[in-house]
Write a structure and sequence with these properties.
Keywords: Cell membrane, Hydrolase, Membrane, Metal-binding, Metalloprotease, Protease, Transmembrane, Transmembrane helix, Zinc
InterPro entries: HtpX_protease, Pept_M48_protease_HtpX, Peptidase_M48
Helix content: 55-70%
Number of domains: 1
Order of helices and strands: HHEHEEEHHHHHHH
Strand order of the largest sheet: 1-2-4-3
Radius of gyration: 21 Å
Number of helices: 10
Structural class: alpha+beta
Shape: elongated
Main location: membrane
Distance between the termini: 16 Å
GO molecular function: metalloendopeptidase activity; zinc ion binding
Subcellular location: Cell membrane
Largest sheet: 4 strands, mixed
């Protein structure tokens, strides 16, 4: 495992999202001529971040309706995670299974001592033990690289920004441009921010998320010593998810989707810019290069 500067990435990610959030507060303050909204949005961001920090694991597990499992209920999963966590010299996370046949897996939690790894029933059915080991190695490295917390908090802040942008649209339509002393309450500025703010938050989050998938692929494969197992698993997961996608209308699933090892929704015509995950073909190519002795699984 090598350094991925996740601390710097965390600062840049959350800093960028806070700038967007405060810009929305400023725009609403201008539209309504009430500066209290700047303070309100700062407090909302602070409270939302704190709540997500302490409850990131519970929120993600609850969104998938996952249940904890014992070694007797999931012997292979337990055996693999116990072996890999010992090899990494890290505490073993809690294990969960989500009752969906859409194949996927994710890790969550604010640190290795408060982490959880969740597999769906679907992924446990379609993967053999070697492939499952590759997937679990990937998820454990998300935990040990300490990037799960950032992704969870970013998702919560992005949700706040989206809700705030909707408020901004309302304020721009009904609260701005009235009277002669309208100071900075240009409804066009408010509308522009309302549409661009959630987009900016999503792009910031997605860019970091995609980079971290490459990191976890590489470090997870180094932990298991078997990059081709993960490559094979990713192919199966993509095929299974396209046949049995999760419901994109379920906002809780959408908020959790960036944590999963692969895109849980049917790809459709969504542009690569808006995907939270790199393409499976790109990830597989990097893993195959790693297996051929290329060292790093590719440049970033």
């Amino acid at each position: 495992m090598h350094r991925h500067y996740n601390g710097l990435k965390t600062v840049l990610l959350l800093g960028g999202m806070w700038v967007v959030l405060l810009a929305i507060g400023w725009a609403i303050a201008g539209a309504t001529r009430n500066s209290v909204f700047i303070v309100v949005f700062a407090l909302v961001g602070l409270l939302g971040t704190a709540y997500s920090y302490w409850n990131s694991d519970k929120l993600a597990i609850r969104s998938m309706r996952a249940v904890p499992v014992t070694p007797q209920q999931a012997p292979s999963m337990y055996r693999i995670v116990h072996e890999l966590s010992q090899r990494a010299g890290q505490p073993m996370p809690r294990l969960f299974i989500a009752p969906t046949m859409s194949p996927n897996a994710f890790a969550t939690g604010r640190n290795p001592e408060h982490a959880a790894v969740c597999c769906t029933e679907g992924i446990l059915q379609i993967l053999d033990e070697r492939e499952l080991r590759g997937v679990l190695g990937h998820e454990l490295m998300h935990v040990y690289n300490r990037d799960i917390l950032t992704s969870s908090v970013a998702a919560a802040v992005a949700g706040i920004i989206t809700s705030a942008a909707q408020m901004l649209q309302f304020a721009a339509f009904f609260g701005g441009g009235r009277g002669e002393d309208n100071r900075g309450g240009n409804p066009l500025v408010g509308l522009l921010l309302a549409f661009l703010a959630p987009l900016a938050a999503a792009v910031i989050q997605m860019a970091i998320s995609r980079t971290r998938e490459y990191d976890a692929d590489e470090d997870g494969s180094a932990l298991t010593g078997d990059p081709l197992a993960l490559a094979s698993a990713l192919r199966k997961i993509e095929g299974g998810a396209s046949q049995r996608p999760m419901d994109p209308a379920d906002q809780k699933l959408v908020n959790t989707s960036h944590l999963m090892i692969a895109n849980p929704f049917r790809g459709g015509s969504v542009s690569g810019l808006f995907r939270t995950h790199p393409s499976t073909a790109d990830r597989v190519a990097r893993l195959e290069a790693m297996a051929r002795g290329g060292g790093s699984a590719g440049g970033r």
